[in-house]
Amino acid sequence: MTVLASIRPHDIDLALFFHVGGAMILVGGLFTAACATIVGWRDESQRLRRFAVMTLLAVALPGWIVMRAAAEWTYSKEHLNDLPSDPTWIGIGFVVSDIGGLLLLIALVLGGVGMRRSRRGEGDTLLRTSGAIAAILLVAYAVVVWAMGAKPS
Amino acid sequence: MSFYDWMLALHLLSVFAVAASLVLFSALVVVGRRMSTLEETTLVFRLGRVGGPLNGVGMGLALAFGIILALKSSDFEIWNGWIIIAFVLWALVGAIGGWTGSYYTAAQRLADEGKEAEVIERLKAPYGAVLHIVTWILFVLLLLDMIFKPGA
Q1: Hey, are the CB atoms on A150 and B5 less than 8 Å from each other?
Q2: Buried-state track A88-101, b at ≥16 Cβ within 10 A, e below 16
Q3: Distance CA B57, CA B14 (A)
Q4: Which site from A5, A53, A68, A95 is most exposed, i.e. has the minimal number of CB atoms within 10 Å?
Q5: Model's pTM, two decimal places?
Q6: What are the backbone angles phi and psi of residue A49, rounded to the nearest 5°?
Q7: A13/B147 touch (CB, cutoff 8 Å), yes or no
Q8: Structural domain boundaries of chain B?
Q9: Cα torsion for A18, A24, A30, A34, to the nearest 10°?
Q10: Calpha distance B68→B150 (Å, rounded)
Q11: CA-CA distance, A97 to A110, in Å (whole number)?
Q12: B23 interfaces chain A, CB cutoff of 8 Å
């Protein structure tokens, strides 16, 4: 599979570019949200926690959509669906991206409710939970990036 | 898993670290342009301190692992056109990114000295944002070069 990846045909390059680009935006959005939450964890002001939620919505979510759509595009272009079963690295990618998408939505809902409550000076726990989910997702996606490169069989 | 597989995985992780820092800086550039008080700008500078080291370490490791990959690969040689282009783009990303970093570090020093008007002016001025956009364009070109491998 590694050999296939290194000498892959050029007709999947565009799909792969969008897949990797989307993944970079997603990871960057998660990193920014996680950093803002951790740096501002003990702050009385909710500014950094609100910034984290907005980053998840404006950066991480669009990145996830592009990454996931381009993953399907790359998968079909590379004819990986012709294999009798998915290689481990693809399995890791699908599982983490699908569960990660669900967790991202949960983080956004919690963050959205937290933002509404923050107008009354409440919602700190929800905003912190949203940022904590972003930090967990960041670690999970780091494992996926490793798997996409190392391609464990 | 072979040594080459590990180097490729670590190269990818390093590049993702650079991308993550660029996304962080982009978010800070966007919100920084809307700030009007010194207190608000603390958000930018507190997070900026995290992104700088990540960017530097990511750039260095991406280059180191990339060179190892080029030397170890049986499919490519280090003097191939697309690899030379990658070195040039990497150097440009580092240089322009360095200028951008210096511009905002100077703004941070002004903030530490309490010079509100100068800090706000620097954050709102297009110079830093333009440098950052150029860094992004070069980074995307580097990504395109790595994936399309022109001439390979």
Answers
A1: yes
A2: ebbebbbebbeebb
A3: 8
A4: A95
A5: 0.93
A6: -70, -40
A7: yes
A8: 3-148
A9: -170
A10: 20
A11: 19
A12: yes
